[in-house]
Amino acid sequence: MKLIDKYTLLSFLKNFLFGLLCFILLFILVDLFENIDKFIDKKLSTGLIVQYYIYFIPEIIKLITPVSILLATLFTTSRFISLSEMTAVNSAGVSIYRYSLPLLLFGAVITLASIYFNGWVVPYSNAAKLQIEREQIGKNKTPGVLQNLSIQDSDNQILTISTYNELSKSGESVSLQIFENKEISDLKQRYDARNIFWDSTRMQWLFTNVSVRSFDSSGLTGYTFADSLHEDQIGQSGNIFITPDRINIKQKKPDELILTELRTFIDEMRNSGQDVTRAEVDYYSKLSFPFANIVVIIFGVSLSLNQRKGSAALQFGISILVTFIYLGFIKISQTFGYNGDIDPMLTAWIANIIFFLIGVTNFLRMNLKN
Fold first, then answer.
1. Distance CA 331, CA 289 (A)
2. Is the pLDDT of residue 203 over 70?
3. What is the pLDDT of residue 109?
4. pLDDT tens across 245-282, in order?
5. Torsion angle of the four alpha carbons 92, 97, 98, 102, in this order, in degrees rounded to the nearest 10
6. Of 45, 61, 208, 264, which has the most beta carbons under 10 Å away?
7. 143-193: per-residue pLDDT in tens?
8. CA separation, residue 128 to residues 25, 32, 245 (Å)
9. CA distance 50 to 182
10. How far apart are CA 339 and CA 362, in angstroms?
11. Phi and psi torsions of 162, nearest 5°
């Protein structure tokens, strides 16, 4: 590595880490002021509040890393220009591409690291943070106990459980409704059970004290009662796709699922005949977002070189504006993706593609000028 590379990278890292630290503190302070009343009302200890924000930091890092990288890119490149260092670099025969190489290599490393960090580390910290919210701030005070579950098990089956215990894998006041078709309009059978248990030997659900009602277009056509029924004894269905593991995953938000869990969840939903469009958008978004780190370097260098001069306040303002445009574009495309108007993979990547093309175009134009 040449001296100019070390100098460029060191200057960039200082700006990046400074921006990262400032944004983390800003996020925490804003969130603390918003939630301080809740913390006081729920009588949370100082230690628990500190723990809550420690778990929050990985999510903040995930969100603001592209912003910090863009800010560092603009500051570093603009400083080189303002001090005429870029002129000296060009005079020495170093092209814009060569000058940008250490920044691009750093962006590539951060991108690869972010795939793992965002896909595995952040979900675990989010799950721990949300557990504090649910058990200490929210209404669910009993760990592992879920209330009023309603699960579309397949395109024509709905399972509802009044109370479900994740630890014992059992539930109370259970109802399984089986419809004629996926429109969920013509009810064919309904199973109402006092309890449901997971039979780990047969890997099936066991219903106890079961009332079975059959229907057709004219109404109720039959009624029977059984002390117990395994799911393979249920006439119209014979198969319940939901399992204890899937119930646990279903209660999590996408931000709590690691990439492999989300991929498995999508495959299981597809096998049960459910719409996976929204889940696929979330999955591909988790994969595409880390690549914003290298895209903003390309975009930022070309933007700084085009602008040539500008104060630190202007650079900060530009980075915030570009970030809002980028994130706004992501949210708009996600809306279309969730509605099925755009392919899920294209939805996740379209913002990166557009900003990458803009950055590369500016890059090529600036290299021709120099």
1. 12
2. yes
3. 96
4. 888 888 888 889 999 989 988 887 887 777 889 999 99
5. 140
6. 61
7. 678 888 988 888 788 999 999 999 999 999 999 999 887 766 788 899 999
8. 20, 17, 18
9. 47
10. 34
11. -65, -50
Which residue reads 């301080």 in tokens? 36
Find the length of the chain: 370
Burial class (CB in 10 A: 0-12, 13-18, 19+), 11: middle
What's the gap between Cα 190 and its chain centre? 36
The first and second tokens of residue 285, run together, are 């978004």
